[in-house]
Every structure is written in structure tokens, then in C-alpha cells.
Design goal:
single chain; alpha/beta; 6-stranded parallel sheet; 3-stranded antiparallel sheet; 9 strands; 40% helix; binds pantoate
């Protein structure tokens, strides 16, 4: 596996691969890689001739300077893991390489980016669109792989792809969980042992909410019961729990209002001061 630091070198290798008619799988990451990322890289490896994994903590998507400063950075372990997964290239640029000048682009991301994470983290999705559009332009992927833990992010990236006219396939990949149900996240390392013991309750409550639907409760009732159930656990505090159309990300109050992809419940929950996100499909 080659570690690439510059956009020029990345262009050389992907242009050569494209000339040879090879398919390119791109896995964009912010590093601190775990088994969830490994599942994306494994899938990209199975489905493409060439696999590029980017490792870059993108400053423009952080709306909190402390979060950016303390985001885990584990480059050496990340590269060892990627080598073990059979990635061909790890693209590990510096912020100056990615942003030689400030990126002032404002994407018209529309309603998918206005709710939930978009409402709670102003500018976050514009920053995601900035970095992912650059990565797509540089790596020229045939397919790009994203984890469904960041469920709304996938809808936002689809919108950016439509706006920019990229010709590629977005491949959503299932959430990978610890055996106790906690969704894998680079932020989990910040959980204290006490918080780590409580955090799996988030997935348990979300999974229970699927049973509420089966028992005949409407979407707005399930949303309220689920929110209350989260907030009733000592040590958990929900920022939001929203049942939305799984394509448009718009809130629904009746199951019948969900479109072709059905409904999803999206949660952001503070656990011991750590902001965790998770979701479930209905
Ligand atoms: O999901 C992430 O890790 C990041 O938002 C992404 C897509 C790599 C862009 O920085």
C-alpha cells in the first residue's frame, strides 16, 4: 500500500488506473479507524480493482474548535489497518494540501441538510460537501462507500453529487455494532467506563421502538415514547430523536407518509458528555 500525501500523486495513480479501464472504490474517512471502517474498505476491495482510502480530519465540517482539536488522530495505526485490509492507496494529506486557499463554496443542499444534524451543527454539512466534492474530483471513484451510522450525511452527499453532476455510485453500508449493540464510532474512545456501560441502551431503546410500531403505534407516538425512554435513563440526554422519511430526511408523523425507502428514526444523544449518534429503520 502506498501512502499518498499530495493531490498531484493521487491524480497520477487514479488517472493511470482509469486509463487501464480499472474501477476505483473510494472510502472517505477521518481516521481513528475501527471495524466499521474496515467493513467499508472490505466491501470496496470486493467490488473494485483499485481501493483508495482517504484519512483526513476535515476542519471545515467542525463547528466546535474543541471537537476538532480533540478528535482522535491515529495515523500510524490507521495505515497499518488499511494495509491489512488490502487497500491500494491511503490518501493522507495535510490541511494545506486540501485547502491551499479557503474554500468559500456554499452548496445549495436544500431540505435534507436543514433538519437534525443540519439544524444542530450549522455549517457542518456544507463542510462535508466541500471535502467530499474535492475527494470525488481528485480520486474520480467509480463507487464511494459511506457508513449508515451517519444516515443523514448520505442523503446530503447524494444531493451534492446531483448538484455537482458527479458520475459515480454512492454505496451505503450497514452500521457495525459492538456485541452489546453500541454503534461503532471514533468518538467511543472518549466514553468513560461508566458512560460506556450506559451507551448500549441507545440501540436497545431504538430496537424496542420497532416493536412499538408493530404494536400499532403511529410514528409521532413512537417518536415521543422513544425520546422519553432515552431521557429516562440516568446518564443519557437526547438532543433529538426524529422519525423521518428515509430519503428526504423530513419528519413524518404517520407511517403512511414515508416514501419508497420507508422511515428511519435518527437519534443524537449525549452520554457522559460524548455526543453519540445512531439510527434505526422501521
Ligand atoms: O463520515 C466521515 O467520517 C466524514 O464526514 C467524511 C465523509 C469522511 C468527510 O470528512
Amino acid at each position: 500500500m502506498e501512502i499518498i500525501r499530495t493531490v498531484n500523486r493521487l491524480a497520477q495513480v487514479v488517472d493511470a488506473a482509469r486509463r487501464d479501464g480499472k474501477t476505483i472504490g473510494l472510502v472517505p474517512t477521518m481516521g481513528a479507524l475501527h471495524a466499521g471502517h474496515k467493513s467499508l474498505v472490505d466491501r470496496a476491495r470486493r467490488e473494485n480493482d483499485v481501493v483508495v482510502v482517504s484519512v483526513f480530519v476535515n476542519p471545515t465540517q467542525f463547528n466546535n474548535a474543541d471537537d476538532l482539536r480533540t478528535y482522535p488522530r491515529t495515523e500510524e495505526a490507521d495505515c497499518a489497518m488499511l494495509e491489512g485490509c488490502g487497500a491500494d492507496y491511503a490518501f493522507v494529506p495535510t490541511p494545506d494540501e486540501v485547502y491551499p486557499e479557503p474554500d468559500n463554496r456554499v452548496f445549495d443542499l436544500g431540505p435534507v441538510a436543514e433538519v437534525m444534524e443540519g439544524a444542530m451543527r450549522p455549517g457542518h454539512f456544507n463542510g462535508v460537501a466541500q471535502i467530499v466534492s474535492k475527494l470525488f474530483a481528485w480520486a474520480k471513484p467509480t463507487r464511494a462507500y459511506f457508513g449508515e451510522k451517519d444516515f443523514q450525511q448520505i442523503a446530503v452527499i447524494r444531493r451534492m453529487v446531483e448538484l455537482e453532476g458527479f458520475d459515480l455510485e454512492i454505496v451505503p453500508c450497514p452500521i457495525v455494532r459492538e456485541t452489546d449493540g453500541l454503534a461503532l464510532s471514533s468518538r467511543n474512545v472518549r466514553l468513560s467506563p461508566e458512560a460506556r456501560a450506559i451507551a448500549p441502551q441507545i440501540h436497545r431503546i431504538l430496537a424496542d421502538s420497532v416493536d412499538l410500531k408493530k404494536q400499532g403505534y403511529e410514528a409521532d407516538q413512537v417518536e415521543k415514547l422513544t425520546l422519553d425512554a432515552i431521557n429516562n435513563i440516568d446518564g443519557l440526554e437526547a438532543e433529538y430523536y426524529s422519525i423521518v422519511d428515509a430519503r428526504t430526511m423530513q419528519p413524518i408523523s404517520r407511517w403512511a407518509d414515508a416514501g419508497d425507502l420507508g422511515a428511519a428514526g435518527c437519534a443524537t444523544v449525549y452520554c457522559g458528555g460524548v455526543r453519540l449518534i445512531d439510527n434505526i429503520r422501521y
